[in-house]
Amino acid sequence: MKNTADYVIIGGGISGVTVGYFLIKHGAKNVVILERDYLTAGATGRCGAGIRQQWGTELNCLTAKYSCEFFENAKEELKYDDAIDIEFHQGGYLLLISTEKELEQTKKNIALQNNLGIASRLLDKSEIKQIAPALSMDGLLAGAFHQKDGHLNPFHTTQAFAQAFKRMGGIIHTNTYVTGITTTGGRVTGVDTTQGHISTDCIINAAGGYSQQVAQMVGVELPLYSERHNILVTEPVERALNPVIMSFSLNFYCQQVPHGSFIMGRTCDNQPRDLRTTADSEFPVHMARSITKAMPSLKKLRMLRQWAGLYNMSPDKCPIYSGTPELAGFYTAAGFSGRGFMLAPATGQSMTEMILGLEPTLPWQRLGLSRFEEGGELILEPSVV
Amino acid sequence: MDKTLEKTGIPTTEQVESAFPPQERLDEGAVAIIECFQRIPCNPCATSCPRGAIVPFEDINDTPVIKNENCNGCTLCITKCPGLAIMVVDTTWKDPAGLDRALIKLPYEFRPLPAVGDEVIATDRAGAFVTKAEVVQVLLNHAMNKVPIVTIAVEKSLMRTVRGIHLDARQRAVVCRCNDLDEADIAAYIAGGATSIDELKRVTRLGMGPCQGRNCVPIVQGMLARTLGVPVAELSPGTYRPTVKSIALGDLAEYDSARDELGDGEK
Predict the structure, then answer these.
(1) Distance between CA atoms of A5 and A188, rounded to whole angstroms?
(2) pTM of the full structure
(3) Minimum Cα–Cα distance from B247: chain A residue
């Protein structure tokens, strides 16, 4: 292991590899990614990997749009080899509307989205039927749809970034646990790992569900907690669902991946916040109940497996892209609140601009830690699961 | 006792020989050959035979005993055997090509299926090339338990050796049937630095299919152990997740009403 680096990224999930890739792309050298297990071992490898641009705040719309456009051009940009297929399926996101309140909020959201160049639209029931014939219309008022939304394969997308990162000279150490961070006089000086010490004056904490533990190594308390979220997958079948279906009031999202499996999740009550990712035995029952109500034809489809991953939750459910006032050289890209994958290209670009002092492409200054201080401006997103 | 079968999954010549009926019976027409040598709790072959040719089991762990005189080679039991341990051999087939060939009717669960007239590679019980064979019939209908039967014609002298076919001239060794991964695919990822089942799972879908790793994981653990030079016992077993068996979403959704009806196990 080389014992010095200009930049050390902690975390080999999608956020870590995108930050690494964008740093090198913008001229940084000697960039190292440290991963405790293997790439995508944490939340990245457990997520639904959906991309939606239908948000209720300008900032979330813009970051998601940036990411979506990046993924559309990922092959030309990253030049990954043919063994990798990021499986970007742009079948759209169909948000189901079942209450007047949702309808009202959706209309506002669509107006905002259209203003920002996101071509979302309100659908009536007959249009919903055309886009998703398997859906039951019971209790539905309307739908919101944006064709360019969709989902990817999170494993291969991470590999695609990692491959580009390594080709451009980046180094990834897997099975390497960060055991401590050294500092002197209010700035970082290096990381201790199970494979040895690396001297550096810049560390990026992209440890996802474990980012709080990493920050605690240098005595920084991030306003975050990690919560278990559950998901399940079915046997693969012929394509029967094109868009991602999502409902806030029925509390679920569901998609059919190119491989044929249906993947679905929902937010469950009383989930542990102690980094556990064990299976919740209640979840499949509630999930099956919601989804078979929304799509009765899925009753015969067999579930193969359930698992869980960590949502790293911030107070306003928006990410933290930030330096640390009391510790120079310690950066945080965390608190994605379930959208780390969706926002990854925006994360990479924004963190790189912040660290290298470049002009902001996106308004990432608003995502700093200072927003949680008195007088700070939170980003209150009305449309999260 | 010979442990070859337990160690390799391949029966010995003596075991194969014992599954075949005497020559006189072969000369009379089609007959089922059941290569089931281990006592396990499994009896669909016996319960499926409409002619009583497979003697009803006294104990569900019994291995099947076939009454050759009752068997007419109907192939019904082939589709019922979860271990794909049954084939039908017919040495009385009138070979239109005038060659000295027998028919072998094999369960074949891979896709794509071959077509009648195709030339396929006939393999032995270890999966090694034996000869080329002609496909004479391909059967699959709704009554067949999703087990297609492929009938091939092979030289009579090789009918005790041939036990499988494959269509792929590359002679790949399939490791993961659910996601169609072969040994070379997996070996490339291990050579590229993968050191655990979970890591391989995340790049290849190994273990993510309907078998949930029951077939592929032991094979790949062996590959990892040999390549890394670490005993299997020291490798991470990989993460196993519920449910133990696949279950229809409709049944899951009705879990509560089922519990009301059946009780929750307390008497």
Answers:
(1) 12
(2) 0.81
(3) A302
